[in-house]
Amino acid sequence: MAASASSARIGALPLLRRSLAFAALAAAALTVGAQPAHAKFIFTNIINFHDRTFNQELGINNLGTIAGYFGSGAAGHPNKGYTVVPPYTRGHFTNENFPGSVQTQVTGINDLFPKRGGVTVGFWSNTNLGVGMDSNFGFVDFRGQFINVNNPKTGTAPPTFNQLLGVNNNDIAVGFYTDANGANHGYTYTIDGGTFSGDINDPNAGTGTGQGTTATAINNKGQIVGFYTDKNGVTHGFFLKRGVFTTIDPTGSTATQLLGVNDHELAVGDYVDANGVMHGLLYNLRNGNFLTLDDPQAMTSTTINGINNKNQLVGFYVNGAGNTIGLIAVWQKPQ
User: Fold this and answer.
1) For labelling alongside 164, which of 26, 145, 258, 290 has CA 20 to 30 A away?
2) Which pLDDT score, from 0 to 100, does residue 335 have?
């Protein structure tokens, strides 16, 4: 069920193992709020008991509630959405699937969930033909009331691709659609009123098939992150602040995706190094400093997909058995 943003999350690029090693940065080089973020995170697996072979954690709010899904999307192995609350063990998962869908991914969650007005967003499919072969349709879940969301500019030839990927506390969601020419365009969606913005297109993005812009996350300041693919087929992260796009490419990166952002202008995602190795990424948008984050159990990749304001990161990695394992990484405050 994965297209564009989602297929990149599953990790289609060549990957290798990297040990848990965080490069030394100056104590104040990367800040989380007003506190220095030292390079130490504790990683914990998150695995839905319905499927121990494939889980991805995609968003986390300040209450620690996580949005994610299990199932690879391969034919016969459909995506199934959920939310999960601390301590993230059996009995703490709640299924969340668009009514009548064959597949669902829950990709974004705001801080009001599950309080009155809380929202999750994601996308769903009515088939399970295989990764990249199923049409995607965006959705909003407002306290169990599901709303189908599809940008009217989405191409009509199947499979069609429209995904909501993030949401803030002002109930503004972000996502992307694929046009009739196969190019991606980001957009925002105002849930109260059901209105779409104009397209979000990084000026450096290509316009051909498989190129364009994907908006993946929005914080409570209205700042947006995502990634774009240029005319040469190279993927770069971007940060959109007050109408200005900034390209984000960590030193040594050959491909970058930003997938989450918090209110302190810390972004997360992944990047591929010169050897074709994919690593998780924590990037300070204010000063350009970054940390490489690799789950210590990863054999082939780590992706960091979501971040809240409490130094909690979520994502997934691939282990030695080839299974995709959900994760939460918690920054350890220096003693």
Assistant:
1) 290
2) 62
